[in-house]
Write a structure and sequence with these properties.
flavoprotein, FAD/NAD(P)-binding domain, monooxygenase activity, oxidoreductase, 5-stranded parallel sheet, alpha/beta, monooxygenase, FAD binding
């Protein structure tokens, strides 16, 4: 079976790795003309890493090497930085794997190298502009330079701005503002280490959250304190004439500092050293009842199908789970691709919805103060995503494939 994967990000490359593990021929179409990874920090939780470890020798070990080596994330009070609670990162004794948090660029490079090493063909400069899945012809895509690619099945991890989603819906699918935005920024460890007030942030690998009134800051250092990245989630105040989204919207450092005025002075001092930042408007998509084309041989996955809030901590890992279930179902039912992908929907849509709801609840709890208006409730600062860590998407698919397949055949 030949699988065409549209994208080239973490989800797409996870799928390429999963498909190669199952013996499929894989072609990945990447829009950019050369390898380019978006900045910022990305996390992987045990429900994703156990799958990657099953599919690809040494990948998870190499991910661990570039991840934050801190033992815990400290959940801190916004005003003075005192520790409210600590969340353990090394959960191998419970779930078999630790939580991995590191630079998106480092992870992207590892995924790309391993996908190619396993035999996936990655084509750069192939921006897909149209999708086709009709009649007896194989499903196909056409790029902006006129090249056509077809395969037995097309799997689209083309992100929150997905054109494949619009093809499935048969109409435009504009973004819906969530009401929240994020500032993303970076400060070198050398800069922070030179200031006694901020040096502690890069004294080795550290993970810290500051929880405030309708706002929280996540700051993380890794590679022995070489890099310090932060993300600040807050309500969107700006009234925009057109909804924008993406990692590359420029932000203003002075706006960041206005936002955290009166916060922990050590945090403010670190943020003041930012040279530039990005302003990322978080958008939703309406929940879909189907992720597949009418003919049934094209499917969307990851953020294209079910974007989640960054506070879920599950964006990348849910794309990996999608890849696991798509690959498993196609291996079980390679003749009737449409049936296989309908089983994927039956298995995945409910879990994706649960992860979305968890992320919304997590943000709401982190942004809530007690009646005094001074402090986040201590029983509301933990990471809710831990409830999802024991899950094995492949095992779940194996347990449910036969039943769902039979039910769908009976209904057809």
């Amino acid at each position: 079976m030949h699988v065409l994967v549209v994208g080239g990000g973490i989800g797409d490359l996870s799928a390429a790795i999963a498909f190669r593990h199952h013996g499929f021929e894989v072609t990945v179409l990447e829009a950019s003309s050369e390898f380019r990874s978006l900045g910022g920090v990305l996390g992987f939780t045990p429900n994703g890493t156990r799958l990657l470890d099953r599919w690809c020798l040494n990948l998870v070990q190499e991910m661990h090497e570039v991840a934050c080596q801190a033992d815990v994330f400290s959940m801190r009070h916004w005003e003075d930085g005192r520790v409210l609670a600590e969340e353990k990162l090394d959960l191998a004794d419970i779930y078999g794997y630790r939580v991995l948090v590191g630079a998106r660029a480092s992870y992207h490079r590892l995924f790309l190298d391993h996908a190619i090493g396993l035999g996936a063909k990655v084509i750069f400069g192939a921006r897909v502009v149209s999708f086709h899945d009709k009649g007896d012809a194989k499903p196909s895509v056409v790029t902006e330079n006129g090249d056509k690619y077809d395969a037995d099945v097309v799997v689209c991890f083309d992100g929150i701005k997905s054109l494949a989603r619009e093809y499935i819906l048969g109409c435009a699918a504009p973004p819906i503002p969530s009401g929240f935005s994020c500032y993303r920024g970076y400060v070198s460890g050398t800069t922070l280490a030179a200031d006694p007030e901020t040096a502690w942030l890069v004294d080795g690998d550290k993970g810290n959250f500051w929880l405030g009134d309708d706002c929280h800051v996540n700051g993380c250092s890794f590679l022995g304190g070489k890099d310090w990245y932060y993300i600040i989630t807050r309500p969107t105040i700006e009234v925009l004439s057109e909804v924008t989204e993406g990692y590359f919207a420029p932000g203003r450092v002075e706006d960041v500092l206005d936002l955290v005025e009166g916060w922990d002075p050590r945090l403010v001092a670190a943020l003041a050293k930012t040279e530039e930042c990005l302003d990322w408007q978080i958008c939703h998509r309406p929940r879909l009842s189907s992720w597949t084309s009418k003919r049934g041989r094209l499917i969307i996955a990851g953020d294209a199908a079910h974007p989640v809030s960054p506070t879920s901590g599950q964006g990348a890992t849910q794309a990996i789970e999608d890849a696991a279930v798509i690959a498993y179902c196609l291996r079980q039912e390679s003749i009737n691709v449409a049936l296989a992908l309908k089983v994927v929907e039956a298995i995945r849509i409910g879990r994706a919805a649960a992860v979305y709801e968890m992320g919304e609840q997590q943000r709401n709890e982190w942004h809530r103060k007690d009646a005094t208006g001074r402090e986040c409730a201590k029983d509301k600062v933990g990471m809710k995503s831990k409830d999802f860590f024991p899950f094995d998407a492949e095992q779940d698919a194996a347990e449910r494939f036969e039943r769902f397949g039979a039910e769908l055949k009976a209904d057809s």
